[in-house]
Amino acid sequence: MAIFDRSLDLGPCVPRPDDDMIVCRCEEITKGEIRRAIHEGMYTMTELRRYLRAGMGLCQGNTCGRNVKSILAAELGCRPAQLEDCTARGPARPVVVDTYGKEVFDRD
Amino acid sequence: MTNTADVIVIGSGVVGSATAYELARRGHRVTVLERSPNVGDGASSRNGAGVRLGGRLSPEAELAAKSIYEIWPTLGEELDADLEYVRAGSLTLAHSESQIASLDKKLAKDRKSGAPSRLVDGAEAREICPYLSSYVEQAVWSEMDGHANPMATTLAYYRAARRLGARYITGENVVALEKRQGRVRRVLTEAGTVYEADKVILAAGFNSRRIAKTVGLWIPFLKRVDECLITEVQPPMFQVRLSCADGNFYGSQTRHGSFLFGGNTNLERYEECYDGKPMNTNKQAADKCRAIAKFLPALKNVKVVRHWAGWLDSMVDRLPIIQEIPEVPGLILACGFSGHGFAIAPAVGKVVTQLALGEPACVDVSALSYDRFKPTGV
Q1: DSSP letter (8 states) at residue A14
Q2: Residue B7 near residue B197 (C-beta atoms within 8 A)
Q3: pTM
Q4: I need a labelling partner for A16 at 20 to 30 A (CA). Which of B44, B72, B159, B251 fits?
Q5: ipTM greater than cut 0.90
Q6: Residues of B contacting chain A (CB within 8 angstroms)
Q7: CA quadruple B130, B241, B41, A32: dihedral positive or negative?
Q8: Hey, are the CB atoms on A105 and B286 less than 8 Å from each other?
Q9: Which superfamily does B4-49+151-220+317-368 belong to?
Q10: Can you identify the CATH homologous superfamily of domain A22-100?
């Protein structure tokens, strides 16, 4: 697990022409919002998700996860493969409350 | 960069970060050490979002009152962030005899602490929250309760503390504390780095136990697992926070529209799910879904999109330790919040800062000492 001193200063977040582009479609989070969050100290995929809700909607980041990662890597100046993904959480597909309630307690 | 600071805070959760913010605001050099790669990765980002005044024992009740009456209403403005704080009251719901009996216990606590709350019948509960079913026989209405976004709050404290110059280091696993000339001075990490400070604040949740042991302190707490689930977005329905009297679920609708429910089935402590990361069990989400369908039939056809589990650092008396340890001068414990820490963190941050600076605390926490525990045979 890498030790990361958050004193790292990325400098001011300079606006870019494509900042209005929506990256997370479920939660309607733009590239500019993601870039600003990174410059405010959200340096991991998990922190970005918790701070902005990018990847917390109906698709759970299956659509935008890669793109958010590329943006974070570009701002931090590293390769996307060096960044840890968010924890994938169940259920694998959205499940209706009433259906889920019929799950039987497996005693094994 | 030098590894010496005025104060070292171990743990970057909402308590650690609130303390780092208060110290940095007053011009002190603070270093925050976090074991996880992410800031606030423990209970601060895995909790049920409740900000409740009711159902608390003294002096936790005073910390809650300080937070809810004086700090929460303006905290978002102070930290320049939307914390989604809503004070819309809460209903503790009861159906069975045993649940109704536990409402009396809650009312007795509130009478003692002065939190406004009263018993309402099923019809009045349905007036307050029209989505409740006839399954609700009785409830306790607590008008000062509410909810907020715990992740937004923790990260807002982090951002504000960092802006004020607090140094955060993630992925830095503290393994031991060391004394110098009778006072705590050095903090050693797994990577072999040594940090030094005049004061060390231990706010590392359940891991505080392992770290405190290195200076001879034994904290009587266990880790317990609690799980949450969240639904897809719904139109705004109600702002009241709901909970079930025997604790099998609690929750509210979040600002963005999802419903967040947490709780446990009381069987988890007998499961083998206590190693490594907190894990979801296969029965909790189902149990909560059954409770939701019974109490809130309007949510029957809503989809669950995600669930997660987290640890409670559960103290034997369910109250935290907040104290500068007399036998280890310079060491301040702020841990063992037992699942009640999020709502009171704003006041705890101030109190811990005052303890660290040797000032009188704005809330008397002398009853939260580490040596208050006695064997039951005595």
Answers
A1: -
A2: yes
A3: 0.96
A4: B159
A5: yes
A6: 1, 37-41, 45, 151-152, 155, 158-159, 162, 167-173, 191, 193, 231-233, 256, 280, 282-283, 285-286, 289-290, 292-293, 299-308
A7: positive
A8: yes
A9: FAD/NAD(P)-binding domain (3.50.50.60)
A10: BFD-like [2Fe-2S]-binding domain (1.10.10.1100)
